[in-house]
Amino acid sequence: ISVAVCLLVVVVLAVALPLAHRQTPDKLKATFTERCEAFKGYDCGKIWDAFTQAYVGRDPCKVPMEAYDPLIAAAPFKPACNRMMFWSKTKDVVHDFTSKRDCFITLEDTLLGSVLDGLTWCGKEGSKETFTTDCPGWTECENNPVRSFWNRASAAFADVACGDVTAMLNGSISTPFSSASIFGSIEVKRFNATMMRSLNVVLVTQKNPVANCENASLKDLQKELDGIKYTCKEVAESQIQECSSKPEKPCGACW
Ligand code: APR
Q1: How far is the CA of 247 from the centre of ligand 1 (A)?
Q2: 34, 142, 172, 230: which has the highest count of C-beta atoms within 10 A?
Q3: What is the pTM of this model?
Q4: Closest CA to ligand 1's atom 31
């Protein structure tokens, strides 16, 4: 009997635990709506409809960036001059910082970025449904619904970059600025010198830094910024974490 009970418990847990972490289509809509409603003054039903029209009924490898134009129009990005933060290969440290301190705004802190952060979705040709499993992976095909969304949203966020802008790059890799990343291939290319005064790189370093501000890839970044002032500062990750946990420290004194 006890062997049978043990087996049953193991089987139930093996089935239930992975399911609990997986979004079902209904849960995707609930998560989207709940996160959206945290932002006041938006019609989240309308934004959901604009979202689904981008990929529903389409081959999940044939969803271009432009499919999300109506979604961006339904919830446009507002410029937050001097407070905009871009990043590449520093996701965890950046979002730990922006979630604890009200110093900077990343794409993932905006309505569209936050409602879709960490989610997976796609449609199917000839179907009106949304799927959350068996969707193409990030690199499986270029025009997949998730990657095209992040490309389009990143472009729209960079389009409104203004004043003094910050970018957190990773000093623990040999090419902190990669022209293949979203930051390098989309965002930097859309920065507009008439609206932006400067790009200020915070190069996040750990105990044994691999790259410093003299890194060749950062020279490539500088070359792309015609008319926009550039600065770079090496900052220890521990210093950023210290600022994350010290609300009394002024934003301007973090680095
Ligand atoms: N598989 C899955 N997701 C990926 C992959 C991949 N191979 N590559 C990138 N992503 C998604 C992930 O969500 C990842 O956390 O893009 C995010 C950022 O990837 P990075 O390579 O770290 O950085 P980058 O491509 O430069 O994109 C970051 O784009 O999100 C915007 O404004 C934001 O400035 C930021 C930039």
Answers
A1: 28
A2: 172
A3: 0.91
A4: 154
